[in-house]
Amino acid sequence: MKERAPFILGSFLFLLLGCSSSLSEFFSMMPSSVGSSILFVAYVQLFRSSFKQVERIPLTPTSIYKIAIPALVGLSIKNIPVEAFQTVPTLIRPLVSNGLLMGILLVLLIEFIYFIGGKKSEKE
Questions:
Q1: Could you tell me if 116 and 87 are in contact, meaning their C-beta atoms sit under 8 angstroms apart?
Q2: Which of 30, 35, 67, 124 is the most exposed place for a label (fewest CB within 10 A)?
């Protein structure tokens, strides 16, 4: 997205939602399956753009690991029952139990480690 209008509109809608307790209550009462079905559209767009990006990457063992490990960890976390995360502190439970977010964080961690490793080998 190159335009700012969708971000400004989305920010305004979240601000409106936060200011209205009745709206917040209504959306919090919705079943999670409704939210998941709405997010499905966004996930399809993410998959589309990620496949376009992967087409440009030469498939080496390193790049395959960078793609496969976060994807498989994210899918695995997505399939773990919610009850398994009851012992995780409440503050980080939504993050740790979300396969998509954990996959993204794992990608960032792998890229950071790869970046730091590349910098060390350049200095030697």
A1: no
A2: 124
